[in-house]
Amino acid sequence: MFLAVLMSIALSSSSIVVDANTAPILKKLHKNKDLQLILIDILNDLVRRDDVPCIAVICDAIYLNVFDTVFFKRMFGVPLVMIVVEEFEDLLSPNFDTLESLREARKEGCDPYLILLANGLQTSRLLRFGDRYRILDTRAKYIMLYDYRLFHSDLHYIWKRIVNVIFLRYHNKITGILKSKAWFDLSTVPFPNPIKKVFVSRRVDIWRNGRFHYNRTLFADKTSDLNGEVLDVVYLDHVPSVVVTMSNDSNKVGGVEIEILNTLSEKMNFVPKLYEPINADIYKWGSKLPNGSFSGLLGEMVNGNADLALGNLQYNPYHLELTDLSIPYTSQCWTFITPEALTDNSWKTLILPFTLYMWIAVLLVLLITGMIFYGLARYYINLQEFKKQNRLENDKKQVYDDTDAKPVGLYLFGQIINSILYTYGMLLVVSLPKLPTGWSIRLLTGWYWLYCILLVVSYRASMTAILANPAPRVTIDTLKELIDSKVTCGGWGTETKKFFEQSSDEIQKIGQRFEEINDPFEAANKVAKGIYAYYDNEDFLKYISVKRKNVMVNVEKESFNVTMNITEVAPSSDSERNLHIMSDCVVNIPISIGFHKNSPLKPLADKYLRRIVEVGLVEKWLNDAMYTIKSLEQNENEIKALMNLKKLYGAFIALAIGYILSFICIIGELIHWHCIVKRDPNYDKYAMDIYYMKKNKKQ
Question: Signal peptide location in the record (predicted)?
Answer without folding.
Answer: 1-15
